[in-house]
Amino acid sequence: MDDSDIKGFGAAFRRSDLTMALGLLTRLPLPYPAYDPASTRPAAHAAWAYPLAGLVIAVIAALVGGIAQGLGLPPIAQAVIVLLALIVTTGAMHEDGLADCADGFWGGWTRERRLEIMKDSQIGSYGVIALVLSLLLRWAAISLVIEQGVFWPALIGAAVLSRGAMVAVMYQLPLARKGGLSGQTGRPSGTATMAAGALGLVAALCLPGVSFLWVLATTGLILLGMAKLAKAKIGGQTGDVLGASQQITEIGVWLCLIAAHSP
């Protein structure tokens, strides 16, 4: 069967969208769909599959964590290995976006200077601080859910929901610049955004021991705040903004889990 459209949510979805999402969001050695110059369908239409790419990423990290557990490592060491698996699988692209946004948003005084800093491959003080805090919070949360025995659903839920959140930011904000990864990808359709959101909501429902409404409210506030901040600082979204949105949303989900499972 060829790559025919799969009808759903009132619009067309393609089976190759998952491969495209994995090719964009991971470093897995997968065959990337060939680009068709005659196609009028933007690459961003594949964004509905970003949460599914998050599922794949989480499963890989969970399997690696299971191996660490089988070797008898304590939860704090397992959490480090899980984080490493997440970073290696994605090529640290989301972490890079978080660091670039921290440096650009607070290191420049004008829109042009902020975009220039975000494009620079060097990392500054704000970026280092953001990365250290992000990794510490995620490490603490993963250690806790491993101890609580809810590691698999927590990891999968956080990974899927946070990547669905990325699509909402892509749809809501205009492009801050024409070039870059986000500019090449474009903006997703409303249908793709709703599909990604639906997958994210399913993931939120599966999070263990935490209120769905609490997670939903936390995610909504993070996305609203991130959208307003990006619009005020650089006038829209870039690939770095999307990566930062994923990281901050994931951290928000982990904080909800920590609060729910703390004695």
Automatic annotation (TrEMBL):
GO MF, one annotated term: adenosylcobinamide-GDP ribazoletransferase activity
Annotated GO CC locations: plasma membrane
InterPro entries referenced in this protein's UniProt entry, alphabetically: CobS
Keyword Transmembrane helix applies: yes
Recorded metabolic or biological pathway in which this protein acts: Cofactor biosynthesis; adenosylcobalamin biosynthesis; adenosylcobalamin from cob(II)yrinate a,c-diamide: step 7/7
Keywords: Cell membrane, Cobalamin biosynthesis, Magnesium, Membrane, Transferase, Transmembrane, Transmembrane helix
Topology in the lipid bilayer: Multi-pass membrane protein
Cofactor(s) essential for the protein: Mg(2+)
UniProt xrefs under Pfam families: CobS
Top EC group: transferase
Chemical reaction(s) catalysed: alpha-ribazole 5'-phosphate + adenosylcob(III)inamide-GDP = adenosylcob(III)alamin 5'-phosphate + GMP + H(+); alpha-ribazole + adenosylcob(III)inamide-GDP = adenosylcob(III)alamin + GMP + H(+)
Gene Ontology terms describing biological process: cobalamin biosynthetic process
EC number(s) given by UniProt: 2.7.8.26
Transmembrane segments: 48-68, 75-93, 123-141, 150-173, 193-224
Compartment annotation: Cell membrane
Physiological role: Joins adenosylcobinamide-GDP and alpha-ribazole to generate adenosylcobalamin (Ado-cobalamin). Also synthesizes adenosylcobalamin 5'-phosphate from adenosylcobinamide-GDP and alpha-ribazole 5'-phosphate.
Similarity field: Belongs to the CobS family.
UniProt-recorded name of the protein: Adenosylcobinamide-GDP ribazoletransferase
Taxonomic classification: Bacteria, Pseudomonadati, Pseudomonadota, Alphaproteobacteria, Rhodobacterales
